[in-house]
Design brief:
Helix content: 40-55%
Number of domains: 2
Shape: globular
Number of helices: 16
CATH class of the largest domain: Alpha Beta
Strand order of the largest sheet: 3-2-1-4-5-6-7
Number of strands: 13
């Protein structure tokens, strides 16, 4: 899947006249994986682009974007009731918009009406497997372009040809102390969502007698999970203080011998719970081996940088984690392969380069 190039001279003339105006639409106000991807992109766009953001829910994301000096507006339309109001609520923002970037499916549904009013091309960046199949293909057909975060996700859109591309979310590399110098400690990072399998990670750590850190913010839909995990950690003798928010993720990665993501299938149809998890790329880019559930997008990210388990239960996780905890040399060799993989394919620089080329290409379409 490749971009159709346009002449450098044309792009130069276009961006000399004015910066390219991009309207980013974010569906949720919290801070999770897809929101972190959005913030990473906004932080790194160069002077050719003039971004602004519309957030469809109140929450900390808007403040995070405002701190970057980027214009942000909140139009509070939460939940299913908010989606039902999209056709009449989707108003065209003031000023020119050259490209609309919808950060997720809900944002793309809202963006359809905005794109129609502005006559601007709509990009849907699809981060997960929600509504895969017919619903996603129907939405994709109405977008100018679909960006998928894995090849596994993009296969369902093969009929779109060059209107679909794969762009990994991308991470910054972390230069941390060598993994072989760490204690046998497990880390699992992410929103405290029941589908992340943190409960099984705690049980696996208890079986192994290993130190563990579960680091992440409460989930907006399941805020009760944090308390449940803390109680479980106390019951297992791990300690509730090892579960919850961490101010310094570098320190969490630095202390970890191995990082685990025990993602469970999501929904009644057993769809994969993850698209291309940022936390695995971060861990590999930090020089840490990973253990994760064998789901298509996860397997694509991990490659030879870790181990996969078919079922993310405590027994399977413990068996996969044990070799890294017991053998620092194995951990180091696996970590080196994972870091090299991220350096080749999953850096933020590569992500920004590919998205920037796409914005310029679509803005040049009459």
């Amino acid at each position: 899947m490749s971009f159709i190039g346009i002449g450098t001279a044309v792009l130069d003339r276009m961006t000399r006249v004015r910066r390219l105006s991009i309207l980013f639409i974010a569906p949720y106000g919290g801070l999770g994986g897809s929101e972190n991807v959005l913030v990473n992109v906004l932080e790194r766009l160069d002077e050719r682009f003039a971004p602004r953001v519309l957030v469809l829910e109140e929450g900390p994301l808007a403040a995070r974007i405002d701190a970057l000096g980027i214009p942000v507006e909140i139009q509070h339309l939460p939940g299913k009731r908010g989606v039902l109001s999209f056709p009449r609520a989707a108003r065209a923002p003031a000023g020119p918009v050259d490209v609309i970037h919808a950060n997720g499916g809900k944002a793309a549904v809202f963006g359809l009406a905005v794109a129609r009013r502005l006559r601007a091309p709509l990009i849907w960046m699809k981060h997960d497997h929600s509504y895969d199949g017919r619903p996603s293909r129907a939405l994709a057909a109405r977008c100018a372009h679909v960006v998928c975060v894995s090849h596994a996700m993009a296969r369902q859109f093969a009929s779109l040809g060059d209107r679909v591309s794969v762009v990994y979310p991308g991470v910054a590399l972390r230069d941390l102390p060598p993994v072989e110098q760490t204690r046998p400690r497990i880390a699992s990072i992410g929103r405290l969502d029941p589908y992340k399998g943190f409960d099984e990670v705690l049980r696996a750590a208890a079986r192994l007698g290993a130190e563990v850190r579960i680091a992440g913010p409460p989930d907006r839909i399941h805020p009760e999970v944090e308390g449940e995990l803390k109680r479980l950690a106390d019951e297992l003798g791990i300690g509730a203080e090892h579960v919850g928010w961490a101010d310094d993720l570098d320190a969490v990665y630095a202390d970890a011998r191995v990082v685990v993501l025990a993602a469970k299938p999501k929904g009644v149809d057993g769809a994969p719970g993850e698209g291309a998890p940022l936390v695995l790329m971060e861990a590999m880019g930090a020089g840490r081996p990973v253990v994760a559930t064998d789901q298509p997008g996860i397997a694509e990210v991990v490659g030879d940088g870790g181990s996969l388990v078919a079922v993310p239960d405590a027994g399977s996780l413990a068996a996969a984690l044990r070799p890294y905890l017991e053998d620092p040399r194995l951990a180091a060799e696996t970590a080196a392969r994972g870091r090299a993989r991220v350096e080749r394919e999953m850096t933020l620089e590569r992500t920004i380069e590919r998205l920037s080329a796409l914005y310029l290409r679509l803005a040049a379409i009459p």
